[in-house]
Amino acid sequence: MDHPDPALLERLRNRESTIGIVGLGYVGLPLLLRYSEAGYRVLGFDVDPKKVEKLNAGQSYIGQFESERVAQAVANGSEATADPARIGEADSVIICVPTPLDRYREPDLSFVIGTIEQLAPHLRKSQVVSLESTTYPGTTEEELLPRIEAQGLEVGKDIFLVYSPEREDPGNKQFETRTIPKVVGGHTPACLEAGKALYEGAIDKIVPVSSTRAAEMTKLLENIHRAVNIGLVNEMKVVADAMDIDIFEVIDAAASKPFGFTAYYPGPGLGGHCIPIDPFYLTWKAREYGLNTRFIELSGEVNRAMPEYVVAKLMDGLNRHGKALNGARVLILGVAYKKNVDDMRETPAAEIMEKIAARGGNLSYSDPHVPHFPRMRNYKFDLSSVELTPEALSTQDAVVLVTNHDRFDYVLVRQHAPLLIDTRGVYREPADHIIRA
Question: What is the radius of gyration, based on Cα positions, of the chain?
Answer without folding.
Answer: 24
